[in-house]
């Protein structure tokens, strides 16, 4: 049975604690088996996978969003796709996690790596989730010592006409000396915040720099890219855009874009093939906004939305 969570704080390994009743909102956050579901005025928005899941024991992963829904309930993302079963909805991870000269599994491939829930709670504004994880691998201290800590705030804005916005604010800090993360070890360098959008035949790409075409290597596409198609199979397009905030590490980030001819994820790349250090006395910040909309990129002013997002104050 579903349990509505507007009066609960949930902490991994701790008892449930009651808090004050929230103010009225069109959003509901429901605790379900495995994670949280967000609903806006009765329509599904997303499911956040908090607990580990796998495909017959393989590709075990957690800490990602799937499904992500369009404004009319259509599913926009894929999980365990046949071509890349390690891909998962909206996720952020890397091929390389290094501690000195030790390599800790491959979290991108969901091999030899795990995300331990330290804290998970509904935000005080009742508009999303706060999540804190620690990274572990059997390749480092036999899985006893945490490698790094990750926090993420996932803020959901109620739908406004033909648009809904969802913000991701991700921060990484080292818990050991000389921790580094990096993307694929080739000229692609993919890794970081990624969207495995449904690979339907009519998908179209638009970007801040104009018309873009997917290519093998990273390209300069500016601070936003949009993906639109008839995701719901109803004869009308809908879309999703990724906006990159200037606070994000490595800004402006290059993009890996993939078409149905070579299905894969869509990724603003950070840091690329060369591993970047994670500080122990601060954090690396990655900040993105998803814009879910009806119609194509031509039907929404993504340039203005990106400008508004970039102007948000640093916290």
Sum up the overall morphology in one term: globular
* Beta-strand residue percentage: 35-45%
Question: What is the H/E string?
Answer: EEEEEEEEEEEEEEEEEEEEEEEEEH
**Count of alpha and pi helical runs:** 1
**Rg measurement, Å:** 19 Å
What's the helical proportion of residues? under 10%
Q: What's the total number of strands?
A: 25
Question: Can you describe what's shown?
Answer:
The protein is globular. The longest helix is centred in the last third of the chain and has 9 residues, at 302-310. The protein has 315 residues and is mainly β. The protein contains 1 helix and 25 strands. A hairpin with a 2-residue loop joins strand 5 and strand 6 (43-49). The chain has one domain: Beta-galactosidase, Chain A, domain 5 (Distorted Sandwich). Residues 1-23 have low confidence and may be disordered. It starts with a strand and ends in a 5-residue tail after the last helix. The strands form 6 sheets. Strands 3-2-13-14-15-16-25-21-20-19 form a 10-stranded antiparallel beta sheet, covered by helices on one side. Strands 1-4-5-6-9 form a 5-stranded antiparallel beta sheet, with no helix packed on it. The chain has a 4-stranded antiparallel beta sheet with strand order 12-11-17-24, with no helix packed on it. 3% of the residues lie in helices and 41% in strands.
Brief summary:
The chain is mainly β and 315 residues long. The protein has one helix at 302-310, and strands spanning 3-4, 8-10, 17-18, 27-32, 35-40, 43-49, 53-55, 58-61, 64-68, 90-93, 96-99, 102-103, 114-122, 128-136, 148-156, 163-174, 179-182, 192-195, 204-207, 224-229, 238-244, 255-256, 267-268, 276-277, 284-294. Strand 7 (53-55) and strand 8 form a beta hairpin.
